[in-house]
Amino acid sequence: MLYDKMLLSTQNIFSQFDNCQQKQLLLALIFSVLLGILILFLCYNSKKKLIYRKKLIMIGQPGGGKTILFNIATEKKIKRQKCISDVDQIYEFPINDHYDLVDTPSIEFEDSLDKREAIISQFNRYFKLHSQDIEKFYLIVNFERTDLMKANCLKTYKYFKKFDNIIDIVITNFQLSEDEIKDKEHLLQALYIYTKDTLRIHFVRNDIQSEELRQMFIQSANQVDLQDVDFEKAEDKESKKSQQNQTKQILNGKQYQCIEECNDS
Predict the structure, then answer these.
(1) What's the pTM?
(2) Structural domain for 136, as ranges
(3) 115 — phi, psi (to 5°)?
(4) Mind telling me which residue stretches traverse the membrane in this protein (predicted)?
(5) Could you tell me if residue 147 is inside a domain?
(6) Residue 87 contacts residue 42 (beta carbons within 8 Å)
(7) Residue 222: C-alpha distances to residues 211, 219, 256, 258 (Å)
(8) What is the mean pLDDT of the chain?
(9) For the chain, where are the alpha helices, taking DSSP H only?
């Protein structure tokens, strides 16, 4: 009954126009419907791209050059300031249609225990939220004496060793090398304990351009085979190990988790 009334009403409206006007009105209706479908498709596609974006995460110690590389690749101007109490935030920005580059705060043993645990909690929340989106980690280390570079790598690597299959090393300020060929060969051997694949060690000069740096990240990310990485299994394994090995300590009347040092073995 209602359908018949609507049909009759529509016919009455159309009858008020001549044939030419009826055709124009029909074309306008068809165009409006198609335009609506197109808008819905674009919205859906945009949302889908946003959901399934992959994360390229830079990690490392202060002074390694994470934020400098982030600013070059994204053409941004963020600054990280040394702060005793506050926890710095995680920055991310798209570098193409599929990848977001992520700059993270450093985990330092010189920080207070409260701040260190807050940063670790921040990492854990981010990784749980994006556990299926993480494509690659980049361990950023500044070019200097080899023993210092290995020590700085270890300070960060021990927190992320469960992801060792997708960790690349980026050596910054390589323009400081007096013999780049010799130093490259030496560092490829020295950093063998962190990655046996020499293609996963990248050398970056301070004059690198934005597009070149973005392509380095994108091309290295495309080489990842995530079939070798089981995030849930790695998380469970690390959680069980943490429960077995972590101890508790009392400090200023509060209870904290004591993060154990890893030896370079």
Answers:
(1) 0.67
(2) 53-240
(3) -65, -40
(4) 25-44
(5) yes
(6) no
(7) 16, 5, 40, 37
(8) 78
(9) 2-15, 19-51, 66-74, 113-129, 146-160, 180-190, 210-221, 231-245
Classify residue 246: in a domain, yes or no: no
CATH number where 147 lies: 3.40.50.300
Per-residue confidence (pLDDT) for residue 8, from 0 to 100: 67
d(CA 182, CA 179): 6
Q: Which of 138, 162, 140 is nearest to 152 (CA)?
A: 140
Please give the tally of structural domains in the chain. 1
- DSSP codes joined into one string, 48-105: HHHHT-EEEEEEE-TTSSHHHHHHHHHT--------SSSPPPPEEEESSSSEEEEE--
**Do the Cβ atoms of 55 and 86 come closer than 8 Å?**
no
Q: Which of 74, 33, 65, 78 minimizes the C-alpha distance to 139?
A: 65
Return d(Cα 200, Cα 195) in angstroms, integer. 7
In a domain, 33, yes or no: no
Rounded distance between C-alpha atoms, residue 73 and residue 216, angstroms:
10
Is residue 97 a contact partner of residue 49, using CB atoms and an 8 Å limit? yes
Q: Is the pLDDT of residue 121 over 60?
A: yes
Kindly state whether residue 58 falls inside one of the protein's structural domains.
Answer: yes
